[in-house]
Specification:
- This protein has 320 residues and is of the alpha+beta class.
- The protein contains nine helices and four strands, in the order ααααααααββαββ.
- The chain has a four-stranded mixed sheet.
- α9 links the parallel β2 (243-252) and β3.
- α2 (39-53) packs parallel to α5 (116-144), α2 (39-53) runs antiparallel to α6 and α2 (39-53) runs parallel beside α7 (180-207).
Length: 320
């Protein structure tokens, strides 16, 4: 089976079970919020419901990624996953606004908090539930190269630590300082805003065709290690959803035939696939060493017209 389809199916599987895990955690907590009145626990519960809802746009994105490319979308529908990441960022921001509003309201209008043992237990439930979901999401996200799923995993991990803050609020109320409860709610709100900032950097970098510098270095080193490749002169790499696409200009001996250049390009492709499990498409442009690089393909006035003074071999392998 196409590795892209396998990765997409695994992503859907991870989204489904992490959604169930967070939903169970949030439902257990909301029942304790109702009987205790803890605003810190309410803020944490709202956030957990927000986390569960982020599975919806991810599930839609992974489902669309299964569709075959069309004439209109010749690269497929992987970019929908990046849009889902943007939606996730705004959902997390919304949960921060709601939690912050409830905390400030309770700060100026304090209400008694009861059933402290239940509140403490809910904090522990939130911590354990979020950490299990975080490990699951990040593991699968790294396996398939999904920035949105990895970001959601780190988000769940930090949520686990904020759930522990609920314990501090319950301890403060037990010691006779009820003001700690809304203060902890505000602290959780600030933590959520920090997550929004960190997650948005990753998501918007992918959306703008940004890629990790170490990925560029690894692709270049792998391509240049293939026998027959003299140098990689130009290299572009970008993510489309959870799949990586690379465009490479490789220099070879000018004495090679077209068939020889094709064999080297195919060897580069095979080695890249062996080293990158999330690589889906490669475009390998083979140049003679005497006229290598895109600068040799421009017209006299710097236009994008490709010169035909030397043999060009392009191998396109796009598996959606």
């Amino acid at each position: 089976m196409d590795p892209s389809i396998l990765a997409t199916s695994k992503g859907l599987w991870a989204v489904k079970w992490s959604f169930i895990g967070l939903l169970i955690t949030a439902v257990l907590q909301i029942s304790i919020v109702y009987i205790s009145g803890s605003v810190a626990l309410l803020a944490d519960t709202i956030h957990n419901f927000g986390d569960a809802s982020t599975a919806i746009p991810l599930a839609i994105a992974f489902s669309l990624a299964r569709k075959k490319p069309s004439k209109c979308f010749s690269y497929g529908y992987g970019r929908v996953e990046d849009l889902a990441g943007v939606i996730i960022v705004f959902l997390i921001l919304f949960s921060a606004v709601v939690a912050g509003y409830e905390s400030v309201t309770r700060f100026f209008n304090p209400q008694p908090v009861g059933h402290l043992q239940a509140v403490a237990a809910a904090g522990i439930i939130g911590c354990v539930g979020n950490e299990l979901v975080a490990q699951f999401r990040m593991k699968v996200g790294k396996e398939i190269g999904s920035a949105a799923l990895i970001a959601d995993g780190y988000h769940a991990r930090v949520d686990g630590f904020t759930s522990l803050a609920v314990l501090i609020g319950a301890a403060g109320v037990w010691l006779g300082y009820p003001i700690i409860d809304p203060l902890i709610g505000m602290l959780i709100t600030i933590t959520i805003l920090k997550i929004v900032f960190d997650t948005s950097k990753l998501v918007f970098t992918r959306l703008l065709d940004g890629v990790e510098p170490e990925v560029i270095d690894k692709v270049k080193n792998v391509a240049e290690s293939v026998e027959g490749v003299c140098e990689v002169t130009d290299l572009r790499v970008r993510w489309i959803g959870h799949r990586l696409h690379a465009e490479i200009n490789a220099s070879v001996s000018p004495s090679l035939s077209v068939e020889g250049g094709h064999e080297i390009a195919n060897a580069v492709r095979e080695k890249l696939l062996d080293n990158f499990s999330y690589l889906s498409g490669t475009t390998i442009h083979v140049d003679p060493l005497t006229a290598s690089g895109e600068c040799c393909h421009c017209g006299p006035e710097g236009s994008d017209i490709i010169a035909v003074k030397h043999t060009n071999v392009v191998l396109n392998v796009l598996s959606q």
